[in-house]
Amino acid sequence: MRKVLSATCLAAMASFATGASYANEELTKMSQNPKDWVIPAGDYASTRYSKLNQITAANVGKLQVAWTFSTGVLRGHEGGPLIIGNMMYVHTPFPNKVYALDLSDENKIVWKYEPKQDPNVIPVMCCDTVNRGVAYGDGKIFLHQADTTLVALDAKTGKVAWSVKNGDPGKGATGTSAPLVVKDKVLVGISGGEFGVQAHMTAYDIKTGKLAWRGFSEGPDDQILVDPEKTTALGKPIGKDSSLKTWQGDQWKIGGGATWGWISYDPELNLVYYGSGNPSTWNPKQRPGDNKWSMTIWARNPDTGVAKWVYQMTPHDEWDYDGVNEMILSNQNINGADRKLLTHFDRNGIGYTLDRATGELLVAEKYDPKVNWTSGVDMDKNSPNYGRPKVVEQYSTDKGGEDHNVKGVCPAALGTKDEQPAAYSPDTQLFYVPTNHVCMDYEPFKVSYTAGQPYVGATLSMYPPAGETHMGNFVAWDGKTGKIVWSNKEQFSVWSGALATAGGVVFYGTLEGYLKAVDAKSGKELYKFKTPSGIIGNVTTYENGGRQYVAVLSGVGGWAGIGLAAGLTDPTAGLGAVGGYAALSNYTSLGGSLTVFALPQ
Q1: For residues 559 and 159, what is the distance between their CA atoms, to the nearest angstrom?
Q2: What is the pLDDT of residue 194?
Q3: Which residue ranges in the chain fall short of pLDDT 70?
Q4: H or E segment to which residue 30 belongs
């Protein structure tokens, strides 16, 4: 009988068994082996950077397809596989199948997990039936199913070790995000901001699935897990009832602030970082106030869940600029001092750099020049509006009021970047950012809350900026200065996660289905190959048998591709995306597959 798991992998699993509290130390060690890809974002810092350098700017043009795998599922394939030793773990959209493939045995399917879920969860999934990936730890594969079940699967057999319900789909809560293992806990967020879910980040015991802590995005201090005197915002204590004071009445109970994005972790500071999403409803007139702590970067202690610091990027959001995008951690010299940095490319079109130890705001600049809803962030530390964006009245949907169509707002609700994660290269000290170059018309209207029913309250249409035809850019960004270094135009939004490598190559995918490789320094296109369907997956690399591979899931869908994925034709359907991306059907169609590339032997 063939060995299913490598010696390295077995040794790792044995050490997991000695104590789950050691899990993140072991995971950190495993993530430092560039041959594997053991954390959804590649490492705890969410850099999506690989030290593998067999594929270089000089030879990437020779890449060939090495092998492919059909997932047997249609609709949007976000996220990417995990690679642990000679095993690859591939996930799918609903019904959230997981495949374990043996890379040393012709990619044989060692096991398959296919959960039985109520299909009634599909209509309450806001923006396609996506899932952003599985996590690994303690010898288990962790999957957050659409019906909010967090399931722990034995990595060797696929058998269920434990499962727990993370939310109530009957009230609009769903699961789309990738979990993260930190120490003896599995962290996972929740989707449902468009259904008035009071959203949360939750930690479960890695051995048993028992609830360890849950921190909500809005509500009383004991629910959002803050210390009024010790939790800070821009260096100052947030004070008692910091969230409740910014909501009218009990609106916070259906306040959204979903947490379906990515999670990062700094083992030295012992802090996890993630973002919270839009407040509910999309009609700002129905929720006066700053609506804290929606649209916020959170720094929490993973042991207790208590927040050390918070920073709200878009107070009283009027445009659905969810703050859930990844937090990329780097150590760089900024203004002459070595700093522990956190860089975040927000939906609102602003690229933020903060000190991740203190939450100090260092840089806040637009990473698409067409962003017009704000003239910029107030960076004067003596100003009462320090850290707040200055809203341009013409593009304020609150100022326009209900049943008034505010036109030409940039970016559109899907943001200058949505969940598609950027990459960071320590070699160039640049961030590589897949972006949307899209604007919108936005008309709020009064909406009533009914549990389990859409709680949106706005009609949208989307289109490229005036006088332009392209809807995406792939951007290299200097997080120290807040400047674009180079930018490549793409016909449609770049909805794929990027990958940076030590070979001086950066990879990403396009909605038409191309895997592209560009020079990390110049942005020059070096290679492209059209896969069977549009790419909204994240590019991954690994080494097996002495050979470097590049892998990506294709399968068009997600918010940008919801028209194709769900067969929608009304231009305002899909929260405005169907009309904006109508031409996509001329270039690709539905599919679900993994395509793996390598240099010729």
Answers
A1: 32
A2: 96
A3: 1-24
A4: helix 23-31
SS3 9: helix
DSSP state letter for 179: P
What integer pLDDT is reported at residue 28 of this predicted model?
87
Tokens of 335: 């203004």
Which helix (H) or strand (E) is 31 found in, with range? helix 23-31
Angstrom CA distances, 263 to 73, 132, 158, 279, 521, stand at 26, 12, 25, 20, 28
| CA–CA separation, 201 and 212 (whole Å) | 11
- Predicted pLDDT at 25: 80
Pairing, β 505-509 against β 514-519: antiparallel
For residue 20, the model assigns a pLDDT of 43
382 contacts: CB under 8 Å, gap ≥ 6:
none
Q: What is the DSSP secondary structure assignment for residue 29, as one 8-state letter? A: H
Compute the distance between CA of residue 335 and CA of residue 310 in angstroms, rounded to an integer.
23
- Of 36, 290, 320, 322, the catalytic one is 320
Q: Report which residue type is found at 48.
A: R
Tell me whether residue 320 is one of the annotated catalytic residues: yes
Token output for 218: 């809005």
Element holding 578 (H helix, E strand): helix 577-580
Quick one: residue 421, left, alpha or beta (phi over 0 = left, psi -120 to 50 = alpha)? beta
CA atoms of 202 and 300, how far apart (whole Å): 11
DSSP per-residue letters across 471-529: -EEEEEEETTTTEEEEEEEESS---SB-EEETTSEEEEE-TTSEEEEEETTT--EEEEE
Per-residue pLDDT of 158-215, as tens digits, reads 999 999 999 999 999 999 999 999 999 999 999 999 999 999 999 999 999 999 999 9
Q: Are strands 499-501 and 49-50 parallel, antiparallel or unpaired?
A: parallel
pLDDT of residue 16: 36
**What is the per-residue pLDDT for 1?**
37
- The answer to whether residues 324 and 258 touch, using CB atoms and an 8 Å cutoff, is yes
* pTM for the structure as a whole: 0.95
pLDDT in tens, 462-498: 999 999 999 999 999 999 999 999 999 999 999 999 9
Asked whether the CA dihedral 508, 277, 440, 369 is positive or negative, the reply is negative
pLDDT the model gives residue 23: 56
Place of tokens 């609150």: 398
pLDDT confidence of residue 26: 83
- Phi and psi torsions of 117, nearest 5°: -120, 150
CB atoms within 10 A of CB 157: 13
CA proximity to 28, closest of 44, 8, 9, 13: 44
HSE (side-chain half, CA atoms, 13 Å) at 46 = 28
Cis ω before 281 (30° cut-off from 0): yes
pLDDT of residue 108: 98
Nearest to 305 by CA among 233, 200, 377, 408: 200
